[in-house]
Amino acid sequence: MPAEAACSRGGWLARALLLLCLLPSAAGAGVVRDRELGFSIDLPPRWKLTYRELSAPDRSRAWIPSRRTDADRGRARIEVERRRHPGARKLEREIRRRGKELTAPLRIRTYPRPNHTELTLVEYRDGSYDRSGAWLVNRYLLAYLPVDGKTLMVARCQAAETDFALYRAQLEKSCLSLSALPR
């Protein structure tokens, strides 16, 4: 009888551990699939969709952390935009020009993708004045993913320079998870 009790306790414990392993993935934002814009991206846990003013608001989506301190103090944000592909040469010039405008070095890495495309990840930091006149420095990760000869998906993941270390792994994972969906 004690052996049967131990087995039933062990089975219960195994089921509880399995449930605990599955809970974090269910609690987070997970993979977002936007059929309208034709992309999917893996978001960090507990991020929410927000809206921003754009000349073409139907061409982009933006997410911020649900905790107000992360969104305000950390200025953490993930944006995905679908735009017209400027062509390989113009895109390369755009990336290089961005690097010349900055005081910090630009890091560029490429990752091969299916269908003979590659995702280009650009990391840089930039500063600007806010409304109160304070100098703010943000660090950015930009992921460029050509969908076809006409369309380019761009994921812009950003956070305040002072808090970037807290968000780096989450933002990089999100940028690298950007993929195009068939439309």
Oligomeric category: single chain
The overall pLDDT, averaged over residues, is 77
Order of helices and strands: HEEEEHEHEEEEHE
Strand order across the largest sheet = 3-4-5-9-8-7-6
| Rg result | 21 Å
Number of strands: 10
Strand content: 35-45%
Biggest sheet statistics: 7 strands, antiparallel
Q: Which ranges are low-confidence, i.e. pLDDT below 50, for 5 or more consecutive residues?
A: 1-10, 12-27
What is the terminal-to-terminal distance?
Answer: 61 Å
What proportion of the residues is helical, as a percent range?
Answer: 25-40%
Give the arrangement of secondary structure elements.
Blueprint: H1 2-27, E1 30-34, E2 39-43, E3 47-50, E4 60-65, H2 68-72, E5 77-84, H3 88-101, E6 107-113, E7 117-129, E8 135-146, E9 151-160, H4 164-176, E10 179-180
Antiparallel strand pairs: 1-2, 2-10, 3-4, 4-5, 5-9, 6-7, 7-8, 8-9
Structural commentary:
The protein is an alpha+beta fold and 183 residues long. 32% of the residues lie in helices and 39% in strands. It is built from four helices and ten strands; from the N terminus they run αββββαβαββββαβ. The chain has helices at 2-27, 68-72, 88-101, 164-176, and strands at 30-34, 39-43, 47-50, 60-65, 77-84, 107-113, 117-129, 135-146, 151-160, 179-180. It has a seven-stranded antiparallel sheet. Strands 1-2-10 form a three-stranded antiparallel sheet. The longest helix has 26 residues, at 2-27. The radius of gyration is 21 Å and the shape is globular. It starts with a helix and ends with a strand. Mean pLDDT is 77; it is low at 1-10 and 12-27.
